[in-house]
Specification:
Largest interface: A-B, 24 and 25 residues
Number of domains of chain A: 4
Strand content of chain B: 15-25%
Helix content of chain B: 40-55%
Helix content of chain A: 40-55%
Structural class of chain A: alpha+beta
Number of strands of chain A: 18
Radius of gyration of chain B: 21 Å
CATH class of one domain in chain B: Mainly Alpha
Strand order of the largest sheet of chain B: 3-6-9-1-10
CATH topology of one domain in chain B: Helicase, Ruva Protein, domain 3
Number of helices of chain A: 28
Distance between the termini of chain B: 51 Å
Radius of gyration of chain A: 40 Å
Order of helices and strands of chain B: HHEHEEHEEEHHEEEHEHEHHEHHEHH
Strand content of chain A: 5-15%
Distance between the termini of chain A: 42 Å
Oligomer: heterodimer
C-alpha cells in the first residue's frame, strides 16, 4: 500500500477517534454507527480516487460525493432511490432546521433526534474530508488538529462546569497517531533509513532520534497531566473549587468587590462584570423567608469538601416532587408561598437560587433540571444571568419536640453510608463523643453539636483567617475557634457526620436586605453556607451554626435557635446589623462595614496572628539558618579536606623504617621501598592534590595532559607569582614528579608551608570575586560533587540499558528450547 | 672485528662523569652547528639509545654537517656512504671476491662495517639498496653468501634525506623508516646563528678543526648508563597509551609499531640521563613523541587531502592524552578529576 493511501486510512481512523466527544452529547450510540459508516465511505472514496490517480481537487470532490450519498442513505426523504434529488436536499434543510430547534429544547444527553444526528454526521463527514485532504493531499497533518479540536469544542460549549476528559484523550491519541504516521512516511520517502551506527534503534523506528522524541513526548504529557493536579484549584468539581479557593461562598463579605461570586462566575467561564454587587431581588409572600439555596456539598474528604454533579429530570418533563406526599410523618407543617426572583447579570451561574421544596417553577428560560435529592435547580447550558422567574415553594416548619421523635438511621442504610463518610480524626471524634454524651436521639445530638458553636464555647466570627479548604484547616478552626460561615458549616457537618447522622453543606444566600415590604435585595455579601442534617421522616433540616452577628440577613428557626441570644429566637430585623442599602449598592465600599461588623473577631484574630507571626518568624529564621548552613557545606568540606591533607603532609614520619622489604623479585632497578619513602610519596601526592584543588578554586585551568612540571610552570606564569610562591610551586611540582616517576621521592621537603605560601600568593594575585568564591563556594568541591553525580547518573543509565538489552534479548521460545 | 676485545673500563658512569662526557660531545658538535642545541642533544640521545638517526630537511641546512660532526666527535670507525641511484646493495654490505693468491673467496666488508655510518641522501638510492640496511640496522649483523658477520658496538646509522616531495628521490619503505629511532629536522638557523656561521665558516670549514672528545668505549659506557635510568610504571603506561593512540587515531592508516614503544622509552631514558636525571618523566616522552613516532605513521588519504601531517597528528595526541598518575592507569576513569574518554572507534 502506498504511503498516501495508508495515510488516508490513518486520517479516517483518527477522525473516528476524534469523534469520541460526541459520546457525551448523545444518549445512545446510534450516532457512532452512522458516523462509522460515513467515515468508511469517505475513506473508501479517497482510496479509490488515489488508486485512480485523481488530482487533489478530484479526490476532495469524490469524498464530498461519498458524504452526500451516505447522508442520503442514512436520512432518506423517501422520494429518491439511493441517489440524492432536490427533494433530498430540501429534506436535509428541514433536518438542519429541526436540529436548531432541538438544540434549544433538549438538554444533554440528547436522545436520538434525526436533526441532531444529521448535523453530527454531516459535521463529522466534513471533518473527515478536511482531515484527509490536509493529511494526504496537502501533507499538513498538524493542521488537521484544528477540525478535530472543533469536535471537542462541542462538549466544551455544552458542559459549562466540567468537561469529560476521556474523549479528549482518545481524540488526542488519534491526532498523535496521525502525526507519527505522517512523519514515518515522510522519512521513508527518503529511501532507506539512515541510522548512524545502527545501534539502539528498533527496526520500525524512522530515526535514532525517535526514541529521544518519544521520551520527550511522554515526559511532556506527564508534566501536562501532573502539573494541573498539583495546583489546588482544579482538583475537584465545581464546589470543591469554590470552597477551596478564597473565603468560600459565605465569606465573600470580607474580600470587597464580591470576590466569591466573581469567582463562581469566572469558573462558569462567563465573567462579565466584576463591580456589581446587587445579585438578586426577591419578592416573596413569606414574611420571614429562610435562605435561598443553590448548591450542596455532600462529599467530605481530607482534601476538602466536594459535591457530586446534580442529576435529575428536566423541568419540562414532569412535575417537581411534593414533600408533603413523600414525608412519612405528619409532624411537619408545610405552608405554600410564592416568590418572584430577579437575577442581575452579575450572577451568572448554572445553578439557580431557589427556596427549598419548590413545587412549581415558571418563566425560567433555557433548559433546567431539578435534582430532588440535592434539591438543586441546575442547567448544563443556561445560566441565571438576567433571569426572572417565579417559584412556588413549600416552607417546612418543625418543632424540636417533633424532631426528637425522628428515629436514627440503621448503620446499613444507604443514605447513612453515603452521608456520614468522613476522614477519621480522633480529635473530632473525642469532641463529638463529649458533646453528644447522654443524648439519645439524632436531633438532640445535632442540636448539642450545633450549640457548641457559640460564644460560650469561645467561638468568634472573623473573616481574617485564610481558608485552606482542607479538613486540617477545619480541625484548626475547631481548636482556635475563629472563622466564618464556611468553616462553621463544614465543621458542623463533619461533627454531625462523626456522630453517625447524615449531614451536608448547603450553599446559598441569606435573606438579604428588606426593601419596601416583601422585597429583599441580596448582594454578594449575603452569600452563605450552612449545614443540613438528615432526620428520618423529616428530610434535610437546616442548621446554621455561624454566629448570626457575623452574617447579614441571618435567620434562625425555633429548632435551631440563635445560641448566642438565649433570650429569644432571633428575628430577622434584629439579628443582623445590616448596613443601609445605599452602602451595599456602592461597589468598593462594602469592605468597611464588614470590618466594623466583626470587630470582636478581628481583635482575637490579632492575637492569634501575632502568635502566628512569632512562629512564622522562627520558621523563617530557621529556614534561613538552614540555608546558610547548607550553603556553607562546600566551604566546610574544603576546609576539612585541606586540613586532612596538611595533616598528611606534616605528619611525623613513621619511626619504623623497614629496610628489609625487597622490591619485586627479579627487578634490578633497585627501588628502595621503605615505609619512609612510601610516606614521602603519599605526602607529595596529597600536597599535589591540594595544589590542583587550589588551582580549581582560583579558577586556573587544570589540564590533565600536563605533567606536574609543566603545570607548575604554567601556574607561575599565569598567576604572575612572586618569587617565594613561585619557588613553592616549583617545589611542589618537583616533589610530585619525583613521587610519581623517580626511584626515590623527595624527602624532608616542607610541603605544607610551601602549600600555604603558594595559596597566599595565588590569593594575592586573584581578584576579590575569585577569592570570595574560592573561600565560600570552592569550585573544586562543587566540581567533585558534580562529577560524582554525573558518574552515578552514567552508572544508572548503563544499568538501565543493560537491563533493557537483556529484556530485548529475552525470548521465551529460546528459553524453552534450551530447557528441553 | 666482531666484538671489542681490548681491555677497557666497563660499568656505568656516575652522574657527574656522564654529564661531563655528554656535555663535551655536545659542545664539540655545537662548534660546527650553531644554535641547534636541542637538535644536537636529540641526536646524541638517539646515539645513547642505540638507535639510528634520520635527519630530514631541505638541502643546505647542515644535515650532513651534523652527521659528520657527530662522527668526528667520537674517536671510532666512521664510514660514509653517498647514496646515489646506481648504488648497489653489495656496496653497502660488502662482497666476496675471489682471491687469486689464496684461491678462495674473500669477504670485502662494505661501508656498514663501522661504528658510525653516515648515509648521505639515503633516499636517492633505489629501494633495493636502501633495503640493504634493513638487517644491519635492526640486528646489527650482515649476512653475505650465507655467512653472518656481526657489527661493532656501538653501531649507529645517521642518514640524511631530502623531504620526499623533492625530485629524484625514492621514499623510504615503511619497514626501513621504522628502523630509524628518530627523525629530526634541522630547520633554518635563526639570524644570529646564521651570522655566527658566516663569520666562523667564512674562511675555513670548522669541521676540519674538530677533534674527537670520546671513544667507542666511553660511548658504550654512556649507553650502559643511560639504560639504567628508571622508567616508572606510570611512564611506561603513558608510552603505551601514546603508541596505542596513534594506532586508534582515525586519521592514521598505519600506527606505531611495538618497536617504536621500545625505542621511545630508550630514547626517553637517554634524554633523562642527558638532563642529569635518573628517572624518566612524561615530559621526556612528550618532547620525543613527534621525532620518534611521527615518521613511522602513514596517514589516511583523507588526512593527506586535508594537509594533515603526521607531526601535527602526533602532537595533537600528546595534547589530548592525560598524564598517568602514580599507580593509576591512564585508562582508569575513576580518577575524579580527569576522566579520560577513549576516543577510539
Amino acid at each position: 500500500m502506498t504511503g498516501r493511501r495508508r495515510l488516508g486510512l490513518v486520517a479516517a481512523t483518527a477522525t473516528l477517534l476524534a469523534s469520541a466527544p460526541l459520546a457525551t452529547i448523545f444518549d445512545s450510540w446510534t450516532w457512532l454507527l452512522q458516523v462509522l459508516l460515513t467515515v468508511v465511505m469517505i475513506a473508501g472514496a479517497a482510496v479509490l480516487a488515489r488508486t485512480l490517480r485523481f488530482p487533489g481537487w478530484a479526490q476532495g470532490l469524490s469524498m464530498a460525493l461519498a458524504l452526500l450519498v451516505t447522508l442520503t442513505w442514512i436520512f432518506p426523504s423517501g422520494h429518491e432511490l439511493l441517489v440524492p434529488t432536490p427533494a433530498t436536499l430540501a429534506h436535509f434543510a428541514e433536518l438542519i432546521q429541526q436540529a436548531g430547534e432541538d438544540t434549544r429544547s433538549y438538554a444533554v444527553p440528547v436522545p436520538d433526534r434525526d436533526g441532531l444526528l444529521f448535523v453530527a454526521v454531516l459535521g463529522l463527514g466534513v471533518v473527515a474530508i478536511v482531515v484527509d485532504l490536509l493529511t494526504a493531499v496537502f501533507r499538513r497533518p498538524a493542521l488537521a488538529g484544528l477540525p478535530m479540536l472543533a469536535i471537542y469544542s462541542i462538549p466544551v460549549a455544552v458542559y459549562l462546569d466540567s468537561v469529560p476528559v476521556t474523549p479528549f484523550i482518545v481524540g488526542a491519541c488519534g491526532y498523535l497517531w496521525l502525526l507519527v504516521a505522517d512523519n514515518v512516511d515522510r522519512v521513508r520517502r527518503f529511501g532507506r533509513r539512515f541510522t548512524g551506527d545502527g545501534r539502539d534503534v528498533d527496526v520500525w523506528e524512522p530515526s535514532p532520534l525517535a526514541a529521544a522524541g518519544r521520551r520527550l513526548g511522554v515526559a511532556g504529557v506527564l508534566v501536562a497531566v501532573l502539573l494541573p493536579l498539583a495546583l489546588p484549584t482544579v482538583t475537584g468539581g465545581l464546589l470543591s473549587q469554590l470552597t477551596q479557593s478564597g473565603n468560600g461562598v459565605g465569606g465573600g463579605l470580607g474580600t470587597g468587590n464580591g470576590g466569591r461570586i466573581d469567582l463562581f462566575a469566572a469558573l462558569s467561564g462567563k465573567l462579565t462584570d466584576s463591580t456589581t454587587v446587587n445579585l438578586l431581588k426577591v419578592t416573596t409572600t413569606e414574611k420571614e423567608p429562610f435562605y435561598l439555596r443553590f448548591a450542596v456539598a455532600d462529599q467530605l474528604t481530607a482534601t476538602g469538601i466536594g459535591s457530586q454533579p446534580p442529576s435529575g429530570n428536566a423541568l419540562n418533563r414532569g412535575s417537581l416532587p411534593d414533600p408533603r406526599r413523600e414525608s412519612s410523618t405528619n409532624q411537619t407543617t408545610f405552608q405554600q408561598y410564592h416568590a418572584e426572583i430577579e437575577v442581575s447579570d452579575a450572577l451568572r451561574q448554572t445553578m439557580a437560587p431557589t427556596y427549598s421544596y419548590p413545587v412549581g417553577i415558571k418563566d425560567l428560560s433555557g433548559t433546567w433540571a431539578y435534582d430532588p435529592n440535592q434539591q438543586v435547580l441546575y442547567s448544563n447550558r443556561s445560566t441565571t444571568s438576567k433571569q426572572r422567574y417565579s417559584v412556588d415553594y413549600l416552607r417546612a416548619q418543625y418543632t424540636p419536640a417533633a424532631l426528637r421523635t425522628a428515629p436514627a438511621l440503621g448503620p446499613d442504610d444507604p443514605l447513612r453510608r453515603a452521608y456520614t463518610s468522613v476522614p477519621v480524626n480522633t480529635f473530632v471524634n473525642d469532641l463529638v463523643a463529649k458533646l453528644t454524651k447522654g443524648k439519645t436521639n439524632d436531633y438532640d445530638k445535632a442540636r448539642a453539636i450545633y450549640e457548641s458553636f457559640s460564644k460560650k464555647y469561645g467561638y468568634t466570627y472573623s473573616l481574617q483567617t485564610q481558608p485552606a479548604g482542607n479538613l486540617a484547616e477545619i480541625e484548626a478552626f475547631l481548636k482556635n475557634k475563629v472563622g466564618f460561615c464556611q468553616q462553621y458549616a463544614v465543621a458542623m457537618t463533619w461533627m454531625v457526620r462523626a456522630a453517625g447522622i447524615p449531614a451536608r453543606v448547603a450553599f446559598g444566600f441569606t435573606r438579604g436586605t428588606a426593601e419596601d415590604g416583601d422585597t429583599f435585595v441580596i448582594t454578594n455579601r449575603n452569600a452563605h453556607a450552612w449545614t443540613e442534617v438528615y432526620l428520618q421522616g423529616f428530610g434535610w433540616v437546616p442548621f446554621d451554626a455561624t454566629p448570626s452577628a457575623g452574617v447579614s440577613g441571618s435567620a434562625r428557626s425555633n429548632w435551631a435557635p440563635d445560641v448566642d441570644q438565649t433570650t429569644s429566637p432571633s428575628t430577622p430585623t434584629s439579628a443582623a446589623p445590616v448596613p443601609d442599602s445605599s452602602a451595599s449598592l456602592a461597589p468598593g465600599q462594602n469592605q468597611r462595614p464588614d470590618r466594623a461588623n466583626d470587630g470582636g473577631g478581628t481583635a482575637t484574630a490579632g492575637t492569634f496572628s501575632s502568635d502566628e507571626e512569632n512562629w512564622t518568624g522562627l520558621l523563617i529564621g530557621g529556614t534561613i539558618a538552614t540555608l546558610i548552613a547548607l550553603l556553607l557545606v562546600p566551604a566546610l568540606r574544603r576546609v576539612l579536606l585541606r586540613r586532612r591533607r596538611n595533616a598528611a603532609t606534616i605528619g611525623p614520619p613513621p619511626a619504623v623504617v623497614d629496610p628489609g622489604e625487597p622490591g619485586p623479585a627479579g627487578t634490578v632497578t633497585g627501588i628502595e621501598v621503605t615505609s619512609e619513602a612510601a610516606q614521602a610519596r603519599a605526602d607529595a601526592h596529597a600536597a599535589w592534590d591540594e595544589l590542583i584543588d587550589t588551582m580549581i578554586d582560583f579558577q586556573i585551568a587544570v589540564d590533565p595532559t600536563e605533567t606536574p612540571r609543566l603545570t607548575a610552570q604554567r601556574l607561575i606564569k599565569e598567576t604572575l607569582l612572586s618569587a617565594e610562591p613561585a619557588a613553592a610551586a616549583e617545589l611542589l611540582g618537583t616533589a610530585e614528579e619525583r613521587a610519581r616517576y623517580a626511584r626515590q621521592p623527595l624527602q624532608g621537603a616542607e610541603l605544607t608551608s610551601a602549600l600555604r605560601r603558594l595559596r597566599a600568593g595565588m590569593s594575592h594575585s586573584a581578584s576579590a570575586r575569585v577569592r570570595l568564591r574560592a573561600t565560600l563556594f570552592p569550585p573544586s568541591i562543587l566540581l567533585e560533587w558534580r562529577l560524582a553525580l554525573a558518574e552515578a547518573g552514567t552508572r544508572t543509565m548503563e544499568a538501565a540499558s543493560r537491563a533493557r538489552e537483556s529484556l530485548a534479548r529475552f525470548n521465551l521460545r529460546r528459553l524453552l528450547t534450551r530447557t528441553r | 672485528m666482531t666484538t671489542p676485545t681490548w681491555g677497557e673500563p666497563t660499568g656505568p658512569l656516575t652522574s657527574a662523569e656522564f654529564r661531563a662526557a655528554a656535555q663535551a660531545i655536545m659542545a664539540n658538535i655545537e662548534q660546527v652547528i650553531e644554535g641547534k642545541s636541542a637538535t644536537v642533544r636529540l641526536a646524541l640521545a638517539v646515539m645513547l639509545a642505540e638507535g639510528h638517526l634520520l635527519i630530514e630537511d631541505v638541502p643546505g641546512v647542515g644535515k650532513t654537517k651534523l652527521a659528520k660532526a657527530l662522527a668526528r666527535s667520537i674517536d671510532c670507525s666512521v664510514r660514509r656512504i653517498q647514496f646515489t641511484p646506481d648504488l648497489l646493495p653489495s656496496d653497502v654490505t660488502g662482497v666476496s671476491v675471489y682471491n687469486q693468491e689464496t684461491r678462495d673467496f674473500e669477504f670485502k666488508p662494505g661501508a656498514v662495517f663501522a661504528n658510525l655510518v653516515v648515509g648521505d641522501e639515503i633516499n636517492r638510492a633505489s629501494p633495493k639498496t636502501q633495503s640493504a640496511l634493513l638487517e644491519c640496522m635492526e640486528e646489527r649483523q650482515v649476512t653475505v653468501d650465507g655467512t653472518t658477520y656481526e657489527l661493532q658496538a656501538p653501531f649507529m646509522v645517521v642518514a640524511t634525506q631530502n623531504p620526499i616531495e623533492m625530485e629524484g628521490t625514492y621514499p623510504l619503505p615503511e619497514a626501513q623508516r621504522d628502523r630509524f629511532t628518530a627523525r629530526i629536522a634541522m630547520g633554518y638557523p635563526d639570524p644570529r646563528a646564521e651570522l655566527a656561521m658566516l663569520s666562523g665558516h667564512g674562511d675555513h670549514d670548522p669541521l676540519n678543526d674538530l677533534h674527537a672528545v670520546a671513544d667507542a668505549a666511553l660511548v658504550r659506557r654512556l649507553i650502559e648508563t643511560a639504560r639504567a635510568v628508571h622508567a616508572a610504571d606510570a611512564v611506561q603506561q603513558y608510552a603505551i597509551a601514546l603508541v596505542t593512540a596513534t594506532r586508534e587515531a582515525p586519521e592514521i592508516r598505519l600506527g606505531a609499531s611495538p618497536r617504536s614503544t621500545l625505542q621511545l622509552i630508550r630514547t626517553a631514558k637517554a634524554v633523562a640521563a642527558l638532563e642529569g636525571r635518573d628517572y624518566v618523566l612524561p615530559d621526556d616522552l612528550q618532547s620525543l613523541a613527534v621525532p620518534v613516532l611521527a615518521h613511522r605513521l602513514i596517514p589516511t588519504a583523507d588526512a593527506q587531502l586535508n594537509r594533515r601531517t603526521t607531526d601535527t597528528i602526533v602532537s595533537e595526541i600528546v595534547h589530548r592524552l592525560p598524564i598517568p598518575h602514580a599507580n593509576r592507569s591512564p585508562y582508569d576513569t575513576r580518577d575524579g578529576r580527569a576522566p579520560y574518554e577513549s576516543r577510539g572507534r
